[in-house]
Every structure is written in structure tokens, then in C-alpha cells.
Design brief:
Elements (H helix, E strand, L loop, with lengths): L1 E9 L5 H12 L8 E8 L12 E7 L2 H7 L3 H10 L3 E10 L1
Antiparallel strand pairs: 1-3, 1-4, 2-3
Length: 98
């Protein structure tokens, strides 16, 4: 399996409703993109303070690196990016296999 971990810093003025809609839309890719098995997300919630300004994170699970690779240019993913990316100040993504 491949984990696709991301962190978002939303632009100032983006509402909690808009943020939740971004993640609901992202989660809606499950069942539409082959090999995307699950997604979890949430806001930063730690007293540790090591989030470097990132406010939200997500983890997607793919059945294989090949499925993750096919997801990246997938038309459904591209449409979701059109919604989410304009709302972001910064994004970081890190993938690893388990």
C-alpha cells in the first residue's frame, strides 16, 4: 500500500465551511479513482507547535504505488485540484509505501 500524506495552509479569509467542502470533495474521489481506498483529514491539533504554519492535513491510502501514480493526472483529481488549490497558501505532500 501507498500512503499519500499532505499538509495544507489555507489562505487568509478562507472559511471553515470552504475548508470542509474542500476535504469532502477530496474524500469524494474514493470510488471514482481506482485504487484509492480511504482518506482521513483534519485540522492541526497539537500543543507541540511543529506544524510550520500548516493548518490541516490528510492521509490517502492507495492499494499500490501504481494506483497513486494513476491518480495524480486522473481527470477527477484534476477537477478537485481546481477547487482546492486556489484556496491554498502552501501545500506539502509526502508519499511512502507500507
Amino acid at each position: 500500500m501507498t500512503k499519500h500524506f499532505g499538509m495544507f495552509q489555507f489562505k487568509e479569509g478562507i472559511s471553515n465551511t470552504e475548508i470542509e467542502n474542500c476535504f469532502i470533495t477530496m474524500k469524494g474521489m474514493i470510488g471514482k479513482i481506482p485504487g484509492l481506498l480511504e482518506m482521513e483529514y483534519g485540522p492541526y491539533d497539537s500543543t507541540e507547535g511543529l506544524n510550520d504554519g500548516y493548518t490541516h492535513g490528510f492521509i490517502m491510502t492507495f492499494d499500490s504505488p501504481e494506483s497513486r501514480d494513476a491518480y495524480l493526472p486522473h481527470p477527477v483529481h484534476e477537477k478537485v485540484k481546481d477547487l482546492v488549490v486556489p484556496k491554498l497558501e502552501r501545500v506539502a505532500v509526502f508519499d511512502f509505501n507500507v
